[in-house]
Amino acid sequence: MRLAAMLLAVMLGLSAPSEAQEAPIQTTIQSQIDAFQADDFARAFTFASPTIKQMFGTPENFGAMVKQGYPMVYRPSSVEMQELREIAGNLWQRVRVTDQSGAGWYLDYMMIETAEGWQINAVQLLPAPDVGV
Question: Distance (Å, rounded) from C-alpha 73 to C-alpha 75?
């Protein structure tokens, strides 16, 4: 059974990231969330990749997008880091967030390593939030 799972992972382009990558990636994500909670959009913007910075241009534009599109990240009541996966050469960190109303959400953060350290290159809101949370 384990061999079948490994073969499926190889076929889908999945592999295991190194344990040394996990802590700095999770720290980057948590630091950005902490900056949002402090309304420090300039600091939150530093954790975004060059692509994201170019897309939004300013920390204020970036902050407005997060407040409107990702309120559960802007003001979470809890954050739980889950598995870090490599998919087709990209690292994705799964994060479970509980919003202020108690609803659970799963997000995948695509991470890239830059000269400034790990940065967030995309955030994908997953379609199946927790039921009954």
Answer: 6
Q: Residues 31-77: pLDDT tens digits? A: 999 999 999 999 999 999 999 999 999 999 999 999 999 999 999 99
- Global pTM reads 0.83
> Which of these, 71, 67, 65, lies nearest to 105 by C-alpha position?
71
Look at the chain and report how many structural domains it folds into: 1
C-alpha span between 90 and 87 (Å, rounded): 5
Residue 105 placed within a domain: yes
> In this structure, which amino acid lies at residue 39?
D
**Whether 129 contacts 123, CB under 8 Å:** no
pLDDT band at 19 (very low <50, low <70, confident <90, very high): confident
Q: Domain limits at 70? A: 17-125
Report whether 82 contacts 107 (CB < 8 A): no
